[in-house]
Request: fold
Amino acid sequence: MAGQPADGRLGPADAVRAATAVVRGERFSDGTIAEAVESGLLDAVAESLCAWYEGVADGGRDDP
Reply:
């Protein structure tokens, strides 16, 4: 599984895809979630989705 992007940012759709891949990966390979935490991917997913939600809640962005 790839780590977080060089700039540490993910678009909302990519964040959802990454979260799905991590959760599905854990079903087949123990430690996938831990690897995502260590690499910073899980933080990047959370930051992306929180920023997207704040934008939607403020009326500034459309759904992805």
